[in-house]
Amino acid sequence: MKTSLPVAIQNHREKPFEQKVFKLLSINPTLFNTCVKEHRGYALLLRIWIEEKYHNGNTALEVAEMIKKSKLRIEAIKSGHPLYIAV
Questions:
Q1: Among 64, 80, 67, residue whose Cα is nearest residue 20
Q2: What pLDDT does residue 10 have?
Q3: How far apart are CA 39 and CA 57, in angstroms?
Q4: Cα(86)–Cα(23) distance, rounded to whole angstroms?
Q5: CA-based diameter of the chain, in Å?
Q6: For residue 85, what are the β-bridge partners?
Q7: pLDDT in tens, 32-77
Q8: Three-state DSSP state, 70
Q9: What is the DSSP string of 6-37?
Q10: How far apart are CA 78 and CA 43, in angstroms?
């Protein structure tokens, strides 16, 4: 079965919830979208996780706080680098 994941990435429109989360993190949502398209990896997993948290009823502030407390180096997105985890 062929996956439509690349199409889903290309056609992704920044959703309002995701935009709120990244504004709370002081990240331009467009930069995150570019990171997902160019690097995938943790950025794509983060996009899926944020959407899941939205469907579970979490607020944008709760999600942003969870990301801040995680080992994800979200600041890498600002410089055009792939999202990574600090070891």
A1: 64
A2: 47
A3: 28
A4: 22
A5: 39
A6: 72
A7: 999 999 999 999 999 999 999 999 999 999 999 999 999 999 888 8
A8: coil
A9: HHHHHT----HHHHHHHHHTT--HHHHHHHHH
A10: 13
